[in-house]
Q: What sequence folds into this?
């Protein structure tokens, strides 16, 4: 378990320069807290992870968002991470990581206007409902008010 | 568990094929169960105990286990084909549906990630059920071997006689969850206990009354049943597997026979020719069906 935590920290540390390129920062404390919140998010959503986790993908996907702010970056990442694992399970794994992240990014940068709360409270809930009902991503008439 | 962890991680990664970094706890548990099943198959084949998991090269053992499972799957498919070819002419929907489901098993079975699962519904009850702990293709293999023996045993009796006996259990036996082989074999054992030929499994009320009297006088019912099984085996020129199976059926009869003897009514065990269809299962004769996953599922 300690080895997994150390590996996750290493992987996250390698993402810090990417964040800095967009004026965002993650301190060593932020990294440790993010790894801890990952553990809690996984346990809370009934999931298991063997690799470094989804955080690096979330960092790469959200770091260029116009709504990403230096002061709240770590907090936003923790919220997005928690939402990601939760909705991954809620959607019964019907979306790949990349599909779910792409959806999160488009809503976060669009109608949610940077509000992780809006993203998780409305759009992701609706997406998961659609996913469970066998929603066809290619059918425009079936997309409801998701986009 | 510490030794299995990297292997489970690698298996999970392969299973996810880059689509995801995480799996649900339930999926991880299934992947782990599959891993353990496959490793144990490889150990059993090599005649090594489970404790060898602590020292063996697990990745190599997993590969060997998967190769063994592939061979077993091919062998099991051959058994299924044989079972289809030797199926009795007597119709029963549960028998037919179970055979169809077992055919689908070979398409659904995932030996790489869910090797311990039995992705089909096995409703038809065998005379001697496969132990509950049997998993994956091993369970299907055992199940089919037993069914083949039952098919063989059924083929020893005249079709009309078997159909008559089954109609004595339930008029709509074709739609009824019952084993086709059990009653004919039980009656054959009853006849063997009386020293009569077993090929025609029809007993009369007089046979039952005589058997009641004779068995009450005998002390070791288990030994009597074993002797009856040996007699039926010899009359049928049964191969070793079938002889063992007959012995197992006879041993399974003992508690029912003892209860029937003390109640003074062997009608609950042997079916006499003049018995009327009841439409209900005969007391103490129901065999629990065994269902697949999905079970695991």
A:
């Amino acid at each position: 378990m300690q080895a997994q935590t150390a590996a996750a920290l290493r992987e996250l540390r390698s993402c810090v320069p990417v964040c800095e390129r967009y004026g965002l920062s993650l301190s060593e404390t932020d990294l440790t807290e993010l790894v801890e919140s990952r553990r809690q998010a996984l346990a809370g959503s009934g999931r298991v992870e063997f690799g470094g986790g989804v955080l690096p993908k979330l960092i790469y996907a959200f770091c260029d968002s116009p709504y990403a702010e230096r002061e709240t970056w770590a907090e936003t990442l923790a919220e997005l991470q928690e939402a990601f694992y939760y909705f991954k399970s809620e959607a019964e794994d019907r979306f790949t990581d990349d599909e779910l992240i792409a959806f999160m990014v488009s809503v976060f940068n669009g109608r949610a206007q940077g509000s992780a709360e809006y993203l998780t409270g409305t759009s992701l809930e609706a997406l998961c409902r659609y996913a469970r009902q066998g929603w066809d991503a290619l059918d425009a008439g079936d997309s409801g008010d998701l986009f | 568990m510490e030794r299995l962890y990297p292997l489970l991680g690698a298996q999970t990664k392969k299973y996810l094929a880059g689509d995801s970094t995480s799996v649900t706890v339930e999926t991880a548990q299934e992947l782990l169960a599959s891993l353990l099943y496959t490793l144990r198959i490889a150990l059993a084949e090599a005649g090594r105990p489970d404790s060898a998991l602590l020292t063996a090269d697990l990745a190599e053992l997993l590969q060997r286990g998967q190769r063994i499972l592939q061979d077993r799957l091919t062998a099991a498919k051959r058994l299924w084909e044989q079972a289809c070819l030797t199926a009795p002419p007597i119709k029963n929907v549960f028998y037919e549906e179970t055979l169809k489901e077992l055919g689908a098993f070979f398409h659904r079975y995932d030996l790489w990630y869910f090797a311990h699962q039995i992705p089909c519904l096995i409703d038809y009850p065998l005379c001697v059920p496969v132990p509950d702990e049997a998993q994956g293709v091993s369970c299907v293999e055992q199940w089919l071997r037993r069914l083949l023996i039952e098919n063989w045993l059924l083929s020893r009796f005249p079709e009309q006689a078997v159909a008559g006996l089954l109609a004595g259990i339930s008029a709509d036996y074709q739609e009824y969850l019952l084993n086709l082989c059990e009653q004919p074999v039980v009656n054959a054992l009853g006849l063997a206990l009386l020293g009569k030929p077993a090929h025609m499994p029809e007993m009369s009320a007089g046979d039952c009354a005589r058997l009641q009297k004779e068995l009450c006088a005998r002390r070791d019912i288990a030994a009597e049943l074993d002797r009856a099984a040996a007699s039926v085996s010899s009359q049928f020129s049964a191969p070793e597997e079938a002889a063992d199976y007959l012995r197992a059926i006879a041993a399974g009869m003992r508690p029912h026979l003892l209860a029937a003897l003390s109640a003074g009514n062997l009608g609950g065990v042997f079916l006499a020719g003049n018995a009327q269809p009841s439409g209900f299962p005969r007391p103490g004769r129901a065999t629990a069906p065994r269902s697949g996953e999905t079970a695991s599922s």
